[in-house]
Amino acid sequence: MIHAYIGLGSNLENPMAQLDCAISTLKNHDDLHNVRISSIYGSKPVGPQDQPDYINAVATFDTHLSPIDLLDLLQSIEQSQRRVRERHWGPRTLDLDLLLYGQETIALPRLTVPHPFMLERGFVIKPLSDLAPDMLLTNGNTVTEQLQQLDTSDLVFIKEE
């Protein structure tokens, strides 16, 4: 079994309902075990600012799925919730990003793990700290140490899962 972490985000079509649906799907999927969810936070969008604020969380679980099979599963969940890819960093009903897949480093055309931007995003590191504050990241920092280096002033606690 591999221990994986994914980021969840939404800013369209009732974002809380979108995250709740995705969380339910993850918790009830036969290939995902011991699913845990961070608290949920609100944040300003990355990229174009002409869109609603996001809500974000991180999920962790154990799986036998390969990285690509897991990516396919995440993208199928996004599609089932009407994800449309209109522009880079644009608004979305649901965004599920594979952040970490065990200790593996993956560089494929469809998938880069660890997620290339996770270390600089407070809306990823803060919820990750809810689940694994002492986990060592690829830059040598713990999640807590990385969080201390980020500006998280735009993060708003929404609810505990």
From TrEMBL:
State the source organism's domain of life.
Bacteria
Spell out the Pfam families in the cross-references.
Answer: HPPK
PROSITE patterns tied to this protein: HPPK
E.C. code: 2.7.6.3
7,8-dihydro-6-hydroxymethylpterin-pyrophosphokinase domain residues are 88-99
Record key words, sorted: ATP-binding, Folate biosynthesis, Kinase, Nucleotide-binding, Transferase
Matches recorded under Gene3D superfamilies: 7,8-Dihydro-6-hydroxymethylpterin-pyrophosphokinase HPPK
- Entry's InterPro entries? Hppk (IPR000550), Hppk_sf (IPR035907)
The pathway is: Cofactor biosynthesis; tetrahydrofolate biosynthesis; 2-amino-4-hydroxy-6-hydroxymethyl-7,8-dihydropteridine diphosphate from 7,8-dihydroneopterin triphosphate: step 4/4
Q: Where are the transmembrane segments?
A: none
Which PANTHER family would you find in this protein's record?
2-AMINO-4-HYDROXY-6-HYDROXYMETHYLDIHYDROPTERIDINE PYROPHOSPHOKINASE
Q: Which family does it belong to?
A: Belongs to the HPPK family.
Instruction: Report the function annotation for this chain.
Output: Catalyzes the transfer of pyrophosphate from adenosine triphosphate (ATP) to 6-hydroxymethyl-7,8-dihydropterin, an enzymatic step in folate biosynthesis pathway.
Q: Which NCBIfam families match?
A: folK
- Name listed for the protein in its UniProt record: 2-amino-4-hydroxy-6-hydroxymethyldihydropteridine pyrophosphokinase
Which species? Answer: Marinomonas pontica
